[in-house]
Design brief:
Layout (H helix, E strand, L loop, with lengths): L10 H24 L6 H14 L3 E2 L11 E5 L2 E3 L13 E10 L2 E10 L5 H19 L7 H14 L3 E2 L5 E3 L6 E5 L16 E4 L2 E3 L5 E3 L6 E3 L5 E3 L2 E5 L4 E3 L4 H8 L7
Antiparallel strand pairs: 1-4, 2-4, 3-12, 4-5, 6-10, 7-8, 7-9, 9-14, 10-13, 11-12, 14-15
Bound molecules: magnesium ion (2 copies).
One magnesium ion binds next to loops.
């Protein structure tokens, strides 16, 4: 994860991250428009890259530790860090698309899991609960609470549905670096971990599995999939700890405007 210091952000820094969050949300929406059976994940990557560059940003992930693309595209049993390529989406898939925008010296980071056509009801429910867990985690964000309060909220909801909580990957601080301190695990105990302070910006990103929580890495040294090959879901927002609570700096609004037209919003 790199740096251990927690960098607090000024209101000006936060404004930059928020503007990046809007570019990011619109890039995600351009991708959402194209999600359908038959499209390759490489084609989706190109849509996002062009949109971000056209808006004066840089894709946060491209060349990050050698990652070769703008998007992490993770289909079905892939949890995170899938590399875009020649794979075509097909009816019944779920696909997590994770994206970051860097502009004005700061990153914004967000992910959403999409349904491709008709998806099995147990997987739709996984997506619904995972997204809900993101917001349950966010509700715990306020000065004086601890990271463990966020972690516990996510874990208790999702394990309450008998889902698996991935432990090997966690949320993180966001700022001048894509990944800063503190780590934000999706499992933990109330009252534990670093204390939240106004000015902290964190990416909260539950990675939740339909089966067991165990994951393995593919030979490409990036792709993380479930060991039992059951589906996974992933939703992420970049969130400010404000003086009184929280402010979400990324947005699903543009994505969901697109998805509403096809009744594919994850409720
Ligand atoms: Mg992300
Ligand atoms: Mg992240």
């Amino acid at each position: 994860m790199g740096k251990k210091v927690i960098y607090l952000k000024s209101p000006e820094d936060v404004e930059v991250i928020k503007q990046n969050g809007i570019i990011l949300g619109k890039a995600q929406a351009e991708v959402a428009k194209k999600i359908a059976p038959g499209i390759t994940t490489r084609a989706l990557d190109k849509v996002a890259e062009e949109f971000i560059l056209d808006n004066g940003g840089k894709p946060s992930f491209k060349n990050y530790n050698g990652f070769p693309a703008t998007l992490c595209i993770s289909v079905n049993e892939v949890v995170v860090h899938g590399i875009p390529g020649g794979r075509e989406l097909k009816d019944g898939d779920v696909v997590s698309i994770d994206c970051g925008v860097y502009k004005g010296g700061y990153h914004a980071d967000s992910a959403y899991t999409y349904m491709v056509g008709e998806v099995k009801s147990e997987v739709v429910e996984l997506l619904r609960v995972t997204k809900q867990s993101l917001y349950e985690g966010i509700k715990q964000v306020k000065p004086g609470n601890r990271i463990g309060d966020v972690s516990y909220a996510i874990q208790s909801l999702t394990e309450g549905h008998n889902y698996g909580v991935v432990r090997e990957l966690v949320g993180h601080g966001v700022g001048k670096f894509l990944h800063e301190a503190p780590e934000v695990p999706n499992f933990g105990k109330r009252g534990n971990g670093p204390r939240l302070q106004a000015g902290m910006v964190i990416a909260i990103e539950p990675m939740i599995t339909l089966g067991k929580r165990f994951v393995v890495q593919e030979n490409d040294n990036w792709t993380i999939r479930t060991e039992d090959r059951k589906a996974a879901a992933h939703f992420e927002h970049t969130v400010l700890v404000s003086k009184t609570g929280y402010e979400i700096l990324t947005t699903f609004e543009f994505i969901e405007e697109v998805l509403e037209q096809n009744n594919l919003v994850v409720l």
